[in-house]
Amino acid sequence: GVANTNVLGVDRDGWNVETGVRGSMTSNLEGYALAGYEDYDQADGEFYARLGAQLKINETWGVNGEVKYVDDYVAYFVGPRMSF
């Protein structure tokens, strides 16, 4: 996708593309593995990997956890997910 974001007062124009697999491991747990490339004006282009899972509480709500591995850092995310 194409992005124009403002992070801590710094505009970041750029783009990213990713592909991967996603599937159910049980009736209320799904996981995914993605590989991508991102390139922004303020940073060199980099390949990355994202691994994550979602625990489905019901048809609408779930809890999502993800780890993103980039060349020089690792980012973690845990939060709610709403599906509709």
List keywords for this structure.
84 residues; mainly beta; six-stranded antiparallel sheet; 82% strand
Q: What is the secondary structure topology, with strand pairs?
A:
Layout: E1 2-7, E2 10-26, E3 29-40, E4 43-56, E5 61-70, E6 73-82
Antiparallel strand pairs: 1-2, 2-3, 3-4, 4-5, 5-6
Would you write up a description of this structure?
By secondary structure, the protein is mostly beta strands. Helices cover 0% and strands 82% of the residues. The chain has strands at residues 2-7, 10-26, 29-40, 43-56, 61-70, 73-82. A six-stranded antiparallel beta sheet has the order 1-2-3-4-5-6, with no helix packed on it. It is elongated. 0% of the residues are buried. The mean pLDDT is 88.
- Return the structural class: mainly beta
Widest sheet: strand ordering:
1-2-3-4-5-6
**Strands, count:** 6
Helix content: under 10%
Distance, first to last CA: 22 Å
Order of helices and strands: EEEEEE
Strand content: over 45%
Overall average residue pLDDT:
88
Number of helices: 0
What characterizes the major β-sheet? 6 strands, antiparallel
Low-pLDDT parts are none
The geometry reads as elongated
Summarize the structure.
By secondary structure, the protein is an all-beta fold. Helices cover 0% and strands 82% of the residues. The chain has strands at residues 2-7, 10-26, 29-40, 43-56, 61-70, 73-82.
